[in-house]
Each structure stands twice: as C-alpha cells, then as structure tokens.
Amino acid sequence: MEPIRRDALLKATIAEIGRTGTMDVTVSQIAKKAGMSSALAHHYFGGKEQIFLAAMRHTLTVYGAEVRGALAMAETPRERLKAIVCAGFSTTNFRKDVIAVWLNFYVLAQRSDEANRLLLVYKGRLHSNLVHALRPLVGDRASDAADRIGGLIDGIYIRQVLGATPPSGKDAVRQVLTAIELELGNIK
Amino acid sequence: MEPIRRDALLKATIAEIGRTGTMDVTVSQIAKKAGMSSALAHHYFGGKEQIFLAAMRHTLTVYGAEVRGALAMAETPRERLKAIVCAGFSTTNFRKDVIAVWLNFYVLAQRSDEANRLLLVYKGRLHSNLVHALRPLVGDRASDAADRIGGLIDGIYIRQVLGATPPSGKDAVRQVLTAIELELGNIK
DNA sequence: TTTTGTTGATTGACGAGTCAATAAAAATAC
DNA sequence: GTATTTTTATTGACTCGTCAATCAACAAAA
C-alpha cells in the first residue's frame, strides 16, 4: 500500500498547488484529493514540508527523465540542443499547473536548503547538458552561452503564469531555438 | 499621518517578504516592523491582500521610474537598450529581498486578477521599451527579439534566488548585453 | 498475534479581522 | 482667545476560524 499512497499524494500535491497557484494548500485538501484521510498523509510523510519536498523531487525526476529520453535519440549537437529545449516545453512540463508548481518551488527554495539544493541540481544539469551540446559548435563560449539559453528557457517558462492564454510550447520552442541559432552565428 | 503610515507599511511589507522569502507573513509582523499595531494596518489598508497589492504597485512604480530616468539620458537606440537593461539590474532592483518580492508577485498573479494585471503592465512596458529601441536596429524582427530579451532578463533575474551568492548585477548586465549584440548580428 | 493500514476526534497554536475605548488634533462656535 | 464638538489616530483585547500534528482505536493482513 505504502508506495501507492505516496504516489497518489505526490500527484495530488502537484494538482492542488496547480489548482490554487500557491503552497497554501492544506494537508487535508491534498489527502482528500488523493482519496485518504489527512492523518494517513502525515503517517506516510511525517509533515507538510516533507510532502512538498517529495513532490518537488518527483517533478524534477519526471522532467529529468524526459530530457534524458529525448537526448538519447539525438545524434548531433544540434539535435541535442533541440531535444533539451523540446523536453522542457513538452506538453507534460509546459502546463499551467506544472508551471505553478515550479514557481512555488522557487519560492520554497529561499526558505528550505533542501529545496534550494534540488533546484541547483536542476540548474546544474541543464547547464551541463547545454554546454555538452554547445561546445562542439561554439567552443569556449559554450558555458556563457549555456547560461543565456538556460536563463531564457527559465524566463519564458515562468512568464507563462501571466495572462489567461494557455501556454504554447510551440512558440516557446521557436523562440529559444532562434536564440540558439543566434548564438551559433547562423542568422544575419 | 495617513501617507506616512501607508508608506512605512509598504516598505515594511517588502522588507518582511524579503526576509522570509514568502508571502506567509502576518499583518502583525509587518505592522510591528513599521512601528505600529496590526489594527492600524488594517485600518489604513483594509486587509492583507490589499497591503500586498499596494506593495506590488509601489515596487513596480519604483522600477518604472528608474527605467524612465535611465531612458531619458539615452540618445541612441543602443544606449536605450543599455539603459533598460542596467535599470533592471541596478543595485536598487537587483537585491535578494526585492527579487523575493517579485517572485512572490508572480505567485500572487495566479490568484489575483489585479496582481496579474499589474505584472502584465510591467511586461507590456518592458516589451514596448525594447521594441522601440530595437526597431531602428533590426526592423521587423524587433518584437520577436524583444520577447527573447525580455524573457532572458526575467529568467536571469529570477534565477538569482538560488544559491547563496548575492546577485551580481554586473554579470547579469553583461550576459543580457551579449545576447543583444547577438540579436544585432555583431558577434561572429 | 503481530504488523500494517486507516481514520475520527482532539489539541493547541496561530492569525485575520473587528470593536469599543481612549487620546490627540482640528474645526467650529461663542 | 477659550470652550465645544467633530474628526482623526491609535491600540488592547477579543472573536472566530483554520490548520498541522497527534493519538487512541479499530480493521485487516500476514
């Protein structure tokens, strides 16, 4: 039972944060959504903060897996770049609720060392993936360029919480790929 | 008295959000920091949400004024671009506490129409400022380019909540200016 | 019968918002 | 220039609700 319940709680946590946009969700709300009592949620996770951290780990794991999957298919540096970008803006990751979760994790990261650590791991992996793909194309400029691309990805991603229109992965990907082409010196 | 107290409350709100990293600050904490009772804070603002919205308006006003000031000095499109970027990463705006405030405003924008509206105004102004400066340099590509530059600014800005190192405006400006040069086709 | 799963009820803390009461200042009348 | 009324400034104490966390008790496997 334990693994099933834990999983249900993580999904419910993400759904509830997505629904309300905040981490001001009660354990009861989460537990109810996951089909159990709040006492059971406490029983399995110990406390609210730990539920959030687990949800964060889960989200990062899913994202990481998707990136790795896309990278495995790629053969050239260019394809690798495209894979990284597309994975980040895929329909799994680029939805209002998932974006809300990420945004709230940034907020949590200011308070919780563990959350901060997790986001730094994400940032580091993104950076190193980008550098790996960029190096053959731009040499020493790879690291700086990776920071720009990474920043752009995060910026475009976060900006989607604004306005009413549902996020368009296509536009986002197009914009980032254009920026990459600029980095590679292939436009103008 | 009223204007003095209101002002003190806004500053205290920003300081407290910066200190804790969250909007989970009590009205009492804010009022105490501003040197008055929580009852008085309620008296002048009506409620917590309204305090937050006023603090948000204040932050955006300060930022807007700084950008306008920098733009007034600029004579060429290039200088205008630099002015916009530098204002955003100035020592007034690019500090852990102010960044925390912005981040939390993004979170609030998901729930509150008014907060959403305010952030959209910011986004719109940034975009139009950038387009205005970019048009003479890149013509029709200006709008698309402005989205990329704007996204990069927001991304680099937000990323600073991570890690322990205090934000370096210099690095941030350098990165964005480099991206702009790439947009202008002056590198490689 | 021991371990695992599960909950309703409870506790204890905390916090937003209200209110009645008091003090001080400003306006008005005499 | 003083007496008065009205407005503004201010707070401590209180209410009411909410919520995280605990626990004792019960059910169901193992």
Write a short abstract of this structure.
Chain A is mainly alpha-helical. Helices cover 78% and strands 0% of the residues of chain A. The first copy, chain A, is built from 9 helices and no strands.
Ordered list of secondary-structure elements with their pairings:
Two copies of one chain form a homodimer.
Chain A: H1 2-20, H2 27-33, H3 38-45, H4 48-73, H5 77-88, H6 96-109, H7 113-138, H8 142-159, H9 169-184
Chain B binds a DNA duplex (30 and 30 nucleotides) through helix 3.
Shape of chain A: elongated
Indicate the percent of residues in helices of chain A.
Answer: over 70%
Q: Averaged pLDDT of chain A, please? A: 95
CA gyration radius of chain A, whole angstroms: 18 Å
Largest sheet of chain A: none
Distance between the termini of chain A: 59 Å
Number of strands of chain A: 0
- Give the uncertain stretches of chain A in residue-range form: none
Q: Regarding quaternary structure, how should these chains be classified? A: homodimer
Q: Classify the secondary structure makeup of chain A into a structural class.
A: mainly alpha
What can you see in these coordinates?
Two copies of one chain form a homodimer. The first copy, chain A, is an all-alpha fold. Chain A starts with a helix and ends with a helix. Chain A has nine helices and no strands. The model of chain A has no long low-confidence stretch (mean pLDDT 95). In chain A, α5 runs antiparallel to α9, α6 crosses α7 and α7 packs across α8. At the A-B interface, α6, α7, α8 and α9 of A face α6, α7, α8 and α9 of B. Chain B binds a DNA duplex (30 and 30 nucleotides) through α3.
